[in-house]
């Protein structure tokens, strides 16, 4: 699943490909927001970790749980 993270005062968003579900990502965001000076952290599909202070979060966009098929889907 693709997760886009907007960071305040940064013009480009961070794009993280993760194996987590949308519900799991939402849970992590909620936990980070509940803690004073919280940190939002995700691990991508290659094992790299992205950590953003909650105070710097602009937005988090969570992609779809299921991948869409590629192509036109028609048969000849």
TrEMBL record:
Q: List, alphabetically, the InterPro entries matched.
A: DUF3107
Tell me one Pfam family matched here.
DUF3107
Please give the name of this protein: ATP-binding protein
- Identify the species of origin: Nonomuraea maritima
